[in-house]
Amino acid sequence: MNPVEVLQFVGIPLGIGSAIVILSWWLLPLKRFQPLGVIVAVGISSVVAFILQEGVPTLPPTQRWHWLVFTVTAVSLLACIYPCFKKWDNLIVLQALIAGLVAGLILQFPSQQEWYMRCLVFVMVLFAGTGLRRVTIPAWHMYLVSWAVLAGLSILALQSSFAKLAFYAGAMSAVAASMCVLQLLRPRETKSVQIIYGTAIVGCTLCGFAYDQGDTAQRSAWFLPMASIPLSAICYVAFANKKYRAVVSLAVVNVCIVAAITWSIFATPATDEMWP
Amino acid sequence: MIILQLVTLPFILSMALFSAEPEAETTASAAFEVDSTHSTSIFRTQHMGAGMFYGRFNDIAGTIQFVEDMPAFDITIDIASVDTNNSRLDSHLKSPDFFNVVEFPVMTFVSTSSKKIGDEKYEVVGEFSMHGVSKTITVLMAKTGQMKNSRGEKVGFETEFSIKRTDYDMPFGIESGSLADETKIIVALEAGR
Q1: Residue A9 carries which DSSP code?
Q2: Which contiguous run of DSSP H or E holds residue A199?
Q3: Of residues B76, B41, B81, the one with CA closest to residue B61
Q4: For B85-138, how does the pLDDT look when each residue is reduced to its tens digit (9 = 90+)?
Q5: Is residue A273 part of a domain?
Q6: Domain range for residue A186?
Q7: Which of A2, A211, A275 has its CB closest to that of B86?
Q8: Which of A102, A136, A229, B63 has its CA 20 to 30 A from that of B162?
Q9: How many CA atoms lie within 13 A of B48 on its CB side?
């Protein structure tokens, strides 16, 4: 991994995603359609991040981990429908349910094809999606959580020597960071984008877990960043002091991520060898 | 006593004849089993456009048929046995960035035809499968020796060929110039029966 690769594999999706959102400020002035800008930006960034490393994906994919980008794309398309309905605000859980079903059907990583794993994927997408929805108040909070969780997963992927997943999660994390900054610059409706990030986070987690060659203790660390999302949402709701609840829920996420990385490092057999 | 010997001799002789005939047939058709300990598979590729970097696969299995001086190979190499003398690099090579050992645990070579092209040299055509991609390749195989002793019969072959990683959907590091596309593979086999 060198700076040129980081610029290419993370910088290009970041640039494209940011450009789409900035363009949407003028192209989508109607409040109802504002969320489409971010949804399209995140969906396209995901595809670009994948294509830059693996080329145009084929169907069926040549490797099972390619299902990750298919799932995120499918959920992005699903999210695009959301702004077309005026009264879907109360049906946000239904959207997460559909996304969970889509992910449960499409995400097919090695050793995860059994029916109970599909059910687990469904539940995880549901929790991650709705958890992120809870922390969309304010919207930048959801982006911050996605940014931190995906950055944590990127580091775990590097730790497990899966550079392509590290770049993909890193690109998605960088796009979330950019969305956060752009949201602060010009606040926009962000409905529905949380389900894309929820699916990407669950997908990266399961993908990393499936291909990690470490022992069970090391592999278990993969689930901690994702688990921080519902924990963070619970803290946000339960914390009495409204002034600091955002800070507390963000702190929960960061503690979980640091713990996961530390756990992974200590669970890896000690070696003096350097790679790359 | 002499009568007993006269009675039993034809029986012993016939037993020997009956038992010798199937043994000879078995020896001619039995495949040589690859001896993983005394077989080697090495790969070499250029790193950063500078040095030549070597690695090996420690587990080789398979069979060699050697009928009427024509060899036929069915070789399997366990990807998880990759060894570069650096555990972190081994881990990276096993990941989906390269071999994706979880989905594609072995590489195989199954010969389809062979032709003698010189003294103990053969041109072997076969199906080489790696990383979910199969391609027909032609390799020059040299017979390094054959001997028979009390421990059985042994035969040895060696080959050296090059592949392009891009042909096998494994392009990691090529665009950035950190690893070359072309990879040389050297396989030395010892098999016995």
Answers
A1: I
A2: helix A193-211
A3: B76
A4: 988 899 999 999 999 999 999 999 999 999 999 888 999 999 999 999 999 999
A5: no
A6: 3-267
A7: A275
A8: B63
A9: 5
Distance (Å) from the C-alpha of residue A106 to the closest C-alpha of chain B?
17
Q: Give the closest-approach CA distance of A105 to chain B in angstroms.
A: 19
Show the tokens assigned to A93.
């859980």
The string over A141-164, giving b where at least 16 C-beta atoms fall within 10 Å of a residue's C-beta and e elsewhere, is bbbbbbbbbbbbbbbbbbbbbbbb
Q: In this structure, what token pair is assigned to residue B155?
A: 């035969």
- B96/A211 Cβ within 8 A: yes
Note whether B166 contacts A: Cβ–Cβ < 8 A. no
In a domain, A152, yes or no: yes
**What distance in Å separates the CA atoms of residue A11 and residue A4, rounded to the nearest whole number?**
9
Of the partner residues B87, B94, B103, the one whose CB lies closest to the CB of residue A64: B103
B100 in A contact zone (CB under 8 Å): yes
CB contact under 8 A, B91 and A213: yes
In whole angstroms, give the CA distance from residue A148 to residue A258: 10
Options 3.40.50.300, 2.60.120.380, 3.40.50.2300, 2.40.128.110; CATH of B27-192: 2.40.128.110
Give how far B100 is from chain A: nearest CA, Å. Answer: 8
Query: Predicted ipTM?
Result: 0.84
Task: Please tell me the total count of domains within chain A.
Answer: 1
Closest CA to A191 of A107, A85, A117: A85
Task: Kindly state whether residue A276 falls inside one of the protein's structural domains.
Answer: no
Per-residue pLDDT at B13:
46
Q: Is some CB atom of chain A closer than 8 A to the CB atom of B103?
A: yes
Which of B86, B89, B97 minimises the CB distance to A162? B97
Residue A200 scores a pLDDT above 90:
yes
> CA-to-CA distance for A217 and A230, rounded, in angstroms?
22
Which among A2, A63, A271 is the nearest to B103, CB-wise? A63
d(CA A49, CA A116): 30
- Other C-beta atoms closer than 10 Å to the C-beta of A80 total 16
Tell me which chain B residue has its CA closest to the CA of residue A3: B176
A275 is a domain residue: no
Q: What is the pTM of this model?
A: 0.86
